Amino acid sequence: MTLTVQSISKRYDGAAVLQDASITIRDGEFVALLGPSGSGKTTLLNVISGLVQPDAGQLLLDGRDITALPAGARRFGMVFQSYALFRHMTVAQNIGFGLQVLPRGDRLDKAGRAAKVRELLAMIEMPDLGDRYPAQLSGGQQQRVAMARALAIDPALLLLDEPFSALDAKVRHSLRGSVRDLQRRVGVAAILVTHDQAEAFEVADRIAVMNGGRIEQIGTPEELRAAPATPFVQDFLTAA
Amino acid sequence: MLRRTLIALAVLFAAVVIVLPVAAILSRAFAEGVGAWWAAVSDPETLQAVWLTVLTALIVLPLNILFGLCAAWAIARFRFPGRRALLILIEIPFAVSPIVAGLCFLLVYGAYGPVGGALQPYGLQLMFNLTGIVMVSLFVTCPFVVREVLPVLQVTGEDEEKAALTLGANGWQIFRHVTLPNVTWALVYGAILATARAIGEFGAVSVVSGAIRGQTMTLPLQIELLYNDYNTTGAFAAATLLTALALLTLVLRGAITAIHPAHGARP
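Predict the joint structure of the above. Result:
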């Protein structure tokens, strides 16, 4: 799987929120979009997810143009900042939702869906909590359920929108490791949106630093530290 | 001391404004015995009025649910020209006196109005029959469902719907499995309030019903008619039926509050 983001631009009410953003995400890679609020990182993630249509530019998935493909047809698993768990469904129903809404022909049978949900519950280390409701879970548990729900559809790509921002510092640290671990085990490429450079440096293979709707620099944590391309990147990284 | 005074005031207020009048209805209705009450409520004209009232409520209910859901969804989820105007329009029935609303309907849909006049040659009459009663009842009750559902939709936000979208759900699946379960109780609550209002509506209905005895009399109109005929027992006996319908909606409301406390707590 290779996703190529090509010269994406987006304006809201005349203001440019994304300008000519290009980046390539390779198979199994963990990429962070790092920048201050208003830098366009969440908009770029929403364009990739299909929730927002760009004004210009292209998205290529293994060479195929998916720019006009609806969000549901892209099969990208998304974890929202608020987790957006379905509050009236149990944990198991939440995780199984993406399996259940498939057209009849593509859908696993009931037993197959239940087995898949059990497998995912075990993977997020919550094997006995399938009957709980989201409101009965801690923030960290909710985040893991959101991960499992996104992974249930065997996504081509995992999209993480500030998934740690609602957690307290201690939980955040331990969850960073487990999210990275989960992503490696499943072998899915992931894009993480964050404003926290420590977080980006800890989990990402490569980081795209964003500012004012542009991608200022893309590189590994070592490359960014060794050779910041612009004064903004330099300032943003040393401010930590 | 202050606490006791406040409680006493509240009890006194409830007694004067609510308990005494309801008790009076019952005592007057049964003043000449259960037999007289039964004779009054089983009068064909009164039964016809009960049937017309229930029929109207049953027709108005699904239309209210449909319109309320659509309007609330559109206002909560989309930005379109005229959105604010629609929000204000939906409030109008609360602000306009029902009798004025009835006159407006008569003016537009009556035999001499632009719409009613145009339909006249085809033998279609909108006013002074069930159609007219349903139309004004819809006007009077249409804000209830929207006003209950809209805030819930706005609070629950779009994130759950977006999540369902990225998981591959289509529009209907999102509505059926995500949106609707989140607003179910608000919807039921709004529908009950609207139904209670439709059953009790007097002003607007009195203008467009034509008050044809045994045909276009709803229960509130029938009660006034009986009262004006000096048929006190008949009027109060009919009033017990209307009160019973109102109490039934109260019980339903209470049941919902018991099942789903979070919603009942909202005003």
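DSSP finds 14 helices and no strands in chain B.
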